[in-house]
Design goal:
Helices cover 62% and strands 2% of the residues. The chain has helices spanning 44-69, 77-106, 112-123, 130-153, 163-178, 182-190, 196-228, 233-245, 250-260, 274-280, and strands at residues 3-5, 23-25. It has a two-stranded antiparallel ribbon. The protein starts with a strand and ends in a 12-residue tail after the last helix. Residues 4-13 and 284-292 have low confidence and may be disordered. This is Metal-dependent hydrolase. One of its GO terms (molecular function) is hydrolase activity.
């Protein structure tokens, strides 16, 4: 069921999440038919990077959902509604990336090693305090929001990509921007008895750790997928580095937004970029329905 999820106003909130924010459930489906093997402009490096990202999403987004839900008790009505909408959006993202990953496998890519690595890493979180999992979720949600904003603001990223794949990533990006403050606001709610110094210290240290692991693992995963295309050694490394840092340069372009995370008073909605959603909202009009 497609739904437009209204978010009721709260009496008082310190977070700068817009009071008029509406999180929309867009029940879209993609990649059920054939898509080219090298779907990113017919070349392997962007294809490998995004395939590697997508392979992590089904388990990763399930982890995000559980981490946020674990801290919703006592949340104000607005945040409680945002959490429900966040969960619905992430469930749809998981479904679509499962379909995309299946398509990649149908084209001969072996992504099971990536899924296994993610499963092993998530297994290590089972005995960790729940608040630690929320801190990791908050950091990774900032990554998805940064990349989503760049994907929508800069059409060069998917300009020559397969139209079906491009549509999926743009849809996903719109929703990641829309719910970019949910994990952060849940963190502020869950740590409301902490000092500002402790909050900043923990989220900053977690972001540094997450950043190291994120790029180490995605680099390794991408090189593995490139090897499956017969591209190895310095050719693979230089091509991938050029894609990430030069043209179109997703890592280079999101660096300022990454750095902003370390400001003591940072919040994801310090920059209200909902206009990026509006640029593409017309494409999703048929998938929107009022909530029952």
């Amino acid at each position: 069921m497609n739904a437009l999820t209204p978010v009721p106003a709260a009496a008082a909130r310190t977070a700068p999440t817009p009071e008029d924010l509406t999180i929309t459930i867009r029940d879209e489906r993609f990649n059920r038919d054939s898509t080219p093997r090298k779907w990113w402009a017919g070349e392997p490096f962007g294809t490998a990077w995004h395939n590697a990202l997508s392979a992590t999403f089904p388990r990763g987004e399930a982890f995000f959902i559980e981490a946020v839900k674990a801290h919703r008790e006592g949340a104000d009505p607005k945040l409680e509604a945002e959490i429900r909408a966040f969960v619905k959006q992430e469930i749809n993202h998981t479904r679509e990336h499962i379909a995309f990953n299946r398509l990649a496998e149908d084209h001969g890519y072996d992504i099971k090693a990536i899924d296994t690595r993610v499963a092993e890493l998530l297994a290590l979180t089972k005995n960790r305090p729940a608040i630690a999992n929320l801190a990791v979720t908050m950091a990774l949600e900032h990554y998805t929001a940064m990349m989503a904003a760049e994907f929508l603001a800069n059409p060069a990223h998917f300009k020559d990509a397969d139209p079906e794949v491009r549509a999926m990533w743009r849809w996903h990006s719109a929703e990641e921007i829309e719910h970019k403050g949910v994990a952060f606001d849940t963190w502020n709610h869950a740590t409301r008895d902490w000092t500002a110094w402790r909050r900043w210290k923990v989220r900053s240290l977690v972001m540094l750790t997450v950043t190291t692991r994120f790029f180490k693992n995605r680099w390794k995963d991408s090189l593995n997928l490139l090897e499956q295309d017969g591209i190895t050694g310095w050719k693979a490394k230089c091509g991938l580095f050029s894609y990430l840092a030069w043209k179109p340069g997703i890592v280079r372009r999101i660096f300022p937004a990454w750095l902003a995370y370390f400001k003591p008073n940072f919040h994801p909605w310090d920059h209200d970029d909902r206009e990026l959603i509006g640029l593409y909202e017309g494409e999703f009009a048929d998938a929107l329905m009022p909530a029952e």
